[in-house]
């Protein structure tokens, strides 16, 4: 039996004790009461020891929980810093990529304009050469027509029809 059961038995013994007439007192068996008190007294150190042990275990568990929560918080803070650092690196990389993209587009546009200008210049030169060639051809044809007319006219003879 534990201390609570022994105290319950003692209370029951006192409740069942015979009342002294005209008094609030009662008569109990001294030996029984002393035996119960001795049993309680013997069990108290054990119960107190168990309670102390439970309290120390509780304190240790609470302390372990506190240390674990501190460790988890520190780990979470480190993870947060790592994630922020990774995110910042990502943002810098995105910004650099966008700058390179814009620079590449500008360079491609510049090169396209230069190429268009170069081709336009070459075509203009080709047009000039073609116009000169066309002029030479026209003069040549005109000359051939003029010489041919002179040859056919023979002076005063009419041209054949």
Task: Please characterize this protein's 3D structure.
The protein is mainly alpha-helical and 161 residues long. It has one domain (3-153). Helix content is 86%, strand content 2%. The protein contains two helices and two strands. The protein has helices spanning 3-16, 30-153; strands at 18-19, 26-27. It has a two-stranded antiparallel ribbon. Strand 1 and strand 2 form a beta hairpin. The longest helix has 124 residues, at 30-153. It is rod-shaped and about 180 Å long. It starts with a helix and ends in an 8-residue tail after the last helix. The model has no long low-confidence stretch (mean pLDDT 86).
Q: What attributes does this structure have?
A:
two-stranded antiparallel sheet
Could you give a quick summary of the protein structure above?
This protein has helices at residues 3-16, 30-153; strands spanning 18-19, 26-27. It is mostly helical and 161 residues long.
Which stretches are poorly predicted, pLDDT < 50 over at least 5 residues? Answer: none
Number of domains: 1
How many E-type strands?
2
Would you list the SSEs in sequence order as H and E?
Answer: HEEH
Q: SS-based structural class?
A: mainly alpha
Sheet-strand content, in percent, reads under 5%
Identify the overall geometry: rod-shaped
- Main-sheet strand order equals 1-2
Report the major sheet: 2 strands, antiparallel
Measured between the Cα atoms of the first and last residue, the distance is 155 Å
Query: What helical percentage do the residues reach?
Result: over 70%
Helix segment tally? 2
């Amino acid at each position: 039996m534990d201390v609570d059961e022994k105290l319950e038995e003692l209370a029951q013994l006192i409740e069942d004790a015979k009342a002294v007439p005209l008094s609030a007192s009662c008569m109990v068996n001294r030996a029984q009461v002393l035996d119960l008190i001795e049993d309680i007294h013997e069990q108290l150190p054990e119960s107190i020891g168990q309670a102390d042990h439970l309290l120390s275990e509780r304190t240790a568990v609470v302390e372990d929980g506190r240390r674990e929560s501190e460790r988890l918080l520190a780990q979470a803070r480190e993870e947060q810093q790592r994630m922020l650092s990774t995110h910042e690196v990502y943002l810098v990389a995105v910004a650099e990529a966008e700058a390179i993209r814009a620079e590449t587009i500008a360079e491609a546009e510049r090169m396209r304009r230069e190429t268009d200008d170069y081709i336009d210049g070459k075509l203009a030169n080709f047009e000039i050469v073609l116009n000169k060639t066309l002029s030479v051809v026209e003069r040549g044809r005109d000359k051939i027509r003029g010489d041919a007319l002179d040859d056919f006219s023979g002076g005063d003879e009419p041209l054949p029809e």
